Amino acid sequence: MAIADVASSLRARVPWEVAQKILEGNGIPRGMGWDRTIEKLADSNDVPGDGEGDLIEAMREHVLAGEKLTRFYSMSSDDLVALRAALNGLTISATRFSAAYPLAISDADIASSSISRPTPAAIELNDDGAALVFASIRAQEVREPVELSDDMGGALSAYEQVVGIRHIKRQSMDVVWIPREGNIIDVRIDFPRGMLLEQGIFAHEQIREQLSLIFGQDYLSNPVDLFPIVDQLYRSPRDGTVVELAFGTSTASLKHEKMRRSSICLRAETYHVGGSAALAAPIEPYRISVQWEREHGAVNSRPELSLQGQFRMTHLVDAPLHEAVIRKCLDTADYNFVRSRVESYMVPQESNEAAPNQQ
Amino acid sequence: MSVMEDIRQAIATSWPTVPGADLSIRLLEFVLHLPEPETRLMTMPMLARGVGLNGVDQNLLTAITILVSSRLELLQPRAMLIEDGDQEFEVEPDDLSVARAEGVLAHPETGEPILDFEDKLYPFFVPTERLKAIMQNEHGA
């Protein structure tokens, strides 16, 4: 298989800003954008000898860890033992997905496929635990501006802009992760930019259904409520950089703040600090995005956790937030780090005091 | 001679008849007295308001150019890509240089070429290390 083909698989799922770091970290030449990079790879004598292998491994890592909508589940010891045993006894049927794994099936195959339910494509085992990887074909709605031309007729003449909607098919790779230690498992749905939250939630229900069919028991009926973590994370000043925050104030306003430059934390931003200090009552965060700076040899990454609650969750008892959006992970080490941060807030507050000083 | 006097003299010597030269001193003094957090993304409208202008005009552009010049190196230009829906992406200086040399800028998310990317960039400015050192002296004094 040519390295350019592997790069094409990466292109379908990895954001360019992440892909650049993967390529750079593996000493693989790149151009300005995917088209020029793939041209370079096809022609270049500068590709390291193990470049193709490195990119396939990067693809595997991204399947497990890249651009995910995640739910967490607290399991009983008995259920965990049963789940681990069931996974050990599972055989993956030969399908086009399993044959191509960790790469995607061809673009032509995807285009000619129907939308499909998740089916097991691979099992990944390592020292930390086991992943059951599901593959499916999903449609994603894309909205694009349409160029107005004279031959479109008078009906559109009243509009300055017309937006077209089309559905593109993607191969999605979802993961059920069962750690070797601890009692929290997580389910990771592929969540590319532009995918609607409702689609992601539906995909979670599909995985729940498939897992029930495979293992004969519904293990995924009770995801952890992540909403309390929004406030805890905001009030942990040494834990990452807050790049987006939405909150209510005691003065009856709703605020939505975003940092426009990386590496600057909203918690300490002048306007935010001044405004918060002017209030007698603490603000009520309901949405937060946090990034952490991580080193990978010659390149750095900035994996990001978003907990996208809604204001009503600050008031209602039964309005949980089940989904975490985890983006910009270069590899499973990045994802596991973000996971560990989320998990640390799931335990009683007393054991949260040693948040890592990693900005 | 103080650093500011050095700079004034350099501007008077290098740009003696340029209309924006006096404005560049006022602009520098405005930036110098900003708290550091407020120098992280200095847009042209912000700088215009800071020196009492109604908007960005040619004199302001000249003043900024003087402060960016290699003779003074007090401000450095950066670029932000802005998309429909007001989504913004900072474009690293190296990437922008390559984009201008090759005539194409890749979208940070999709990696696809952005048509007419210059129309979608807006400039902002940050202090150079030299200006940061001067500011630290001024604020610490």
Can you give keywords for this protein?
A: alpha+beta, two-stranded antiparallel sheet, 11 helices, 32% helix, globular, B: 141 residues, alpha+beta
Folded structure, characterized:
The complex is a heterodimer of chains A (359) and B (141). Chain A has 359 residues and is an alpha+beta fold. In chain A, 32% of the residues lie in helices and 26% in strands. Chain A is built from eleven helices and twelve strands. Chain A has a ten-stranded antiparallel sheet, sandwiched between helices. Chain A has a two-stranded antiparallel ribbon with strand order 9-10. In chain A, helix 1 runs antiparallel to helix 3 (34-43). In chain A, 35% of the residues are buried. Chain B has 141 residues and is α+β, with helices and mostly antiparallel strands. Chain B has helices at residues 3-14, 21-32, 44-50, 58-68, 93-102, 129-140, and strands at 42-43, 75-82, 88-91, 105-106, 113-114, 121-127. In chain B, the strands form two sheets. Chain B has a four-stranded antiparallel sheet. A two-stranded antiparallel sheet of chain B has the order 4-5. In chain B, helix 1 (3-14) packs antiparallel against helix 2 (21-32) and helix 2 (21-32) packs across helix 4 (58-68). The longest helix of chain B has 12 residues, at 3-14. The model of chain B has no long low-confidence stretch (mean pLDDT 91).
Short synopsis of the structure:
The complex is a heterodimer of chains A (359) and B (141). Chain A has 359 residues and is of the alpha+beta class.
Q: Helical element count of chain B? A: 6
| Radius of gyration of chain A from CA coordinates | 22 Å
> What pattern of helices and strands is seen along the backbone of chain B?
HHEHHEEHEEEH
* Residue windows where pLDDT falls under 50 for at least 5 positions of chain A: 348-355
Global geometry of chain B? elongated
Number of helices of chain A: 11
Main β sheet profile of chain A? 10 strands, antiparallel
The beta-strand count of chain A equals 12
Tell me the fraction of residues in β-strands of chain B, as a range: 15-25%
Query: Averaging pLDDT over every residue of chain A, what do you get?
Result: 90
For the termini of chain B, the CA-CA separation is 17 Å
Q: What is the subunit arrangement here?
A: heterodimer
Rg of chain B, nearest Å = 17 Å
Structural class of chain B: alpha+beta
**Most strands sheet of chain B:** 4 strands, antiparallel
* Helical content class of chain A: 25-40%
